[in-house]
Amino acid sequence: MAATQRIDVGAAQARSRASAKPTNAFSTGTLVLREEIASGRMRRLGGFELDGLRIELRQGGDSLWVFIRRKHGPGGVALRAGYAQGGLTAVRLEDQGPSRRVFSFDAAIGRFEVEITGHAQERPVVRAIVRLTPSRQTLISHLPRDLYPLGPNDDPTTATGHVEAAQRGLNVGVVYARFERPDFGDLLYVQNLTALNPYFIATETKPDGAVGGEWPELGYLPPTPPQATTAPINPLRAAETVVLSDAVLVIGEDGSNDEHASALKFLQMLAAAYPHIGRPEPELRDWIGRSERTLRDLDRSPDATLEYYGARYVRPYTAAEYPDSMVQLSVLAALKDWEAWTGEALPLTRALRRGVSRFHDKQLRTLRRYLPNVGDDKNANAVDSWYLYHPLLNLGRLAQEDADAKALFTDCIGYAVKAARHFAYAWPIQFDVTDFKVLVAARNADGLGQTDVGGIYAYVMMQAFELTGDSLYVDEAKAAMAAARGMRFELEYQANLTAWGAAACLRLYRVTNDRTYLDQSYVYLASLLHNSMMWESEIAGAAHYQNFLGATCLHDAPYMALYECYDCFCALEQYLKEAGADLDDRVRLLVSEFCRYTLSRAWFYYPDALPKDLLATEVRNGHIDRALSFPVEDLYGDGQPAGQVGQEIYGCGAAPSLAVRAFHRLPDAPFITFCDQFVADRQMLGAASAVFSLSGSSVGQAKLVFLRGKHRRGLPRLSVSTADGEIAAARETPDQVEFIVPAGARLVVKWGDEA
Fold first, then answer.
1. Which of 1, 254, 466, 527 could form an S-S bond across to 491 if both were Cys, CB 3.0 to 4.6 Å?
2. Which of these, 516, 591, 578, 589, lies nearest to 551 by C-alpha position?
3. What is the CATH number of domain 287-660?
């Protein structure tokens, strides 16, 4: 046996947060601002008050500044709202309201317009939009960061604090920071990157890691062309207005900075910024039709499955790679969901189910990754840590109604516990299944392994508890959750594992009634959303597909993948089911919106939904066949060719998984109902009336659509009303009737003579 290995997270935590200690070295931007404030040369342009804050606007030598301070208390922040290299002149107040100011000013490169608005929400929000209309074709070579914490006497060099989270890759353009001295509290800065698409397109740049910084110079660093060998060649066009910045700043209160409190505040503040982020309208997709085509191709295509040992096995990619247990059970679980929804058995499901036992190692009493006949080019004993537990999760789902699956699950659960204890609940990237020898210890120089495997392990343990009643498994789930504490924003390794970790926390909360686990679920969600694209990119090929709120599949991955996307969707459905009324409503909003947009954006992973010339011509695994209704693995926020990794047959469970959770059938009703929020409960009231209870946020909205069934000429008269009797307006076409309703409402639906 290899020695028990524990991965130290302390170094990573230290690196994830900038030091709170003052330093003798400061950026030029910090020092210039410090001198300009101290000189008294800034011109005051007025201001307004906002929910306990004083907002002051000042004209500096080359920038317009927004100073945000508390009415009572020290400290504050300075937000640069417009940078005019060479100076600004003719500053004019164009418009104002109680919490709104619009200024224009002239500069060497053109005319600026700056709009400052304050929004009195649960936490005050200040938004600053900077627009530039160039006077000539303008090449942009440098633009500075825009956010500076202020210490005593408005000195940015004396404020101390740390950065909890900053933008990763092309994900949400966020920096989450906290003051330590003075005691100003915490703040969340979000750059609305959606509004900046014309700038990125014109300059041929992308905002990769553009929001962040080192204390005390924070915020957005607009991307500019590289200077190493060539000067910029892509100009902003003369007389065409472009948004240079759309900064949303949420000011938090003083309070505890422990991990749970910090995660909840991050989510609450992100929810406060969310209404100000540009996003597309989610669209209804035909996931039922897509499911039917996918299942047909899975059954018929010789590139999709192989036959061994009298059973069928799913290839991971089109005509490529060996079958493995994660793939087999992921697809099988989706097919079982589809059978339950349609009420019809599939021969393919039985054929795949027969093959599961061949992954079972009776000596080790675990599921192996590969079949016994795997080729010599694979290490048959090597397993990624998450590959040990994810097949068990889906086997546990099957075990609810399948005695053979339950017997197999319970036989394997002991090894799962043994592995967790061996690694002290801190798993490496890859190990040998026979002796736990570590093959790949860490994902990077931080020394961290698969940091969120403890979450999916805890979920499997809670399944084991529900199937056996043995409290040992609850203790195991607790141990895994205890080991994950302290990871903060370094928690995520792979998006779907993080989502299942959040769901595991809620199951633990329900069983133990210990609110600590509800609070810990917020840490998992904060990490998941931190690694999601909370903006809609139109850069290059990304203009052809939706990507809003898409999660990158790994903590450092350059792309979004459908397998992780739909698995997150399934996990978060469970999360909302377990949460009930205890969930913070702002967190509920973000979780619900993540899932709502999944139903819309997931469509574009399918090759026939993309322009042919957007598909990769060089593919790492197998090939791409546009005639097959299987998704490509990879879509990119910067619009790179899609499918470079391959066409993932193991992601073919997406369509049926989404369909059965978004489309609903009522007994004898002449329609199918679609809802882009999860339906927590539905009940028939009579022959032509029913109640739908939605699980979304009280401040969100849902799209409820009634679709004409097959072989029907039309739809009956329909009405939808809320519990308080408010009647929703209908938008009708020959094939559907659509209602926009509150996302957390209890709805009464009537049709025909009862409507």
1. 527
2. 591
3. 1.50.10.10
